Each structure stands twice: as structure tokens, then as C-alpha cells.
Amino acid sequence: MNRFVAAPLRGGRGVVFAIAFLLAGCPRPAPAPTLDGQWPAAAGDYDTVSETWTRSGKLRRDYQLVAEVHATIKSPAWRAAWIERRARQARLGTASRAELEAAQRADDAEAWEVVVILTTWDRRENDLDRGARSVWRLVMVDAAGNEIAPIEVKRDRRPEYVVRSEFPRHGDFSRAYIAKFPRDAQLLGPGVGEVALRLSSPRGGIELTWHGAP
What we know:
Elements: H1 11-24, H2 46-52, E1 54-61, E2 64-73, H3 76-90, H4 94-110, E3 111-120, E4 137-141, E5 147-148, E6 152-155, H5 160-166, E7 175-182, E8 194-201, E9 204-211
Helix pairs in contact: 3-4
């Protein structure tokens, strides 16, 4: 059996090295988003914004991985960054870019959308799009603790490489879903301090939480 034996460190450089080593083993906390639900004055970098609005978690039972989930809230800030990315990639002109933004604003006004990337140990349990017949129960939880059921959950049927380009955590054994929640639910908005996504089944549950920036 391998053993780690701690030896005394001498001198300031040794202490600094020890601290750096310990910090390197600690995962960096996810950036805190602004949960006011407002469109930004300027779009941010897509990768940075997407990371800010993504949370991840794993469910284990009896030492076995049951499920892994990554969820991205398609907030106005996320949509603004996506618009800029798409316009740049497709080299859209002014009119085409305006149409793209109008479509995104309309989608945002219709429902809150969350992209869920789900991997399950048993492929038969990767069935979020089956609604009430799914193995999983998916809800959002507002700051007051109210559970909000989705209006619909559907598979993202776009080519795998397209989905993966937007959501790099989408792997070979995962499925991508788009969950829509009622727009009148107070998931984002002025004064909102946190929001969560809760995914549960008879095997257990996962809760992902977005804490708002102070």
C-alpha cells in the first residue's frame, strides 16, 4: 500500500511550495453569475460566460457512479455571448445578426431554458425527454424554495459536434436536453440570490446551485 509521509519543510520557499501544492489539489469554485435576469450592455466572452452559468454534479451509490450532470442556464447574459459567438463564426451581416438577436430575445421571453447534459451508468435511465414516465424527476428551485416543474424537456437533436462545440462537457456517452420552465417563475430577476436545479430518482438525487454574485 502506498503511503504519504509528511516531512518537515525548512525555509520560506518550502512553506510556499507546500501551500501551492495543497491549493493545486483543490477545485476552483465556479464563478458567481449575476442573477438579475437582465440583458447585459455588452456581451462577454462565450467560454467564460458559459462556465459562469454552468454547474456540475455526480450521483454515486454503493461506490458506483449512477449519473453525472452538467446544467447551463441560458440566461440573457449567456444568450448575448452566444449571439456574438455565432455572428462571428457565421460572419453575419448587420441584418442577419439583428434577426438572430430578435429570435434569442423572443425565446428568452417565452421560457427559462436550461441545457442539461446527462450521463447515466445505465443507458436506459437516460430518458429525461419521457416526461412523467422518466426515471428522473427534474425541477428548478427558486430562492424561496419553491419547486418549478418544466413545461417540456426535449433532446437536443443537433449534430454531436455542434452541441459539443457549445457545451464541451457533452461526451460520447451523454445526452443533451433542453428543459423549458415557465417564464413567470421567479428563477432569475432583481433581488434573486440563488437558484437551483434538482434531479432525483429512486437511486438518489443531485442538486446544483447557482449563488448570485454579491
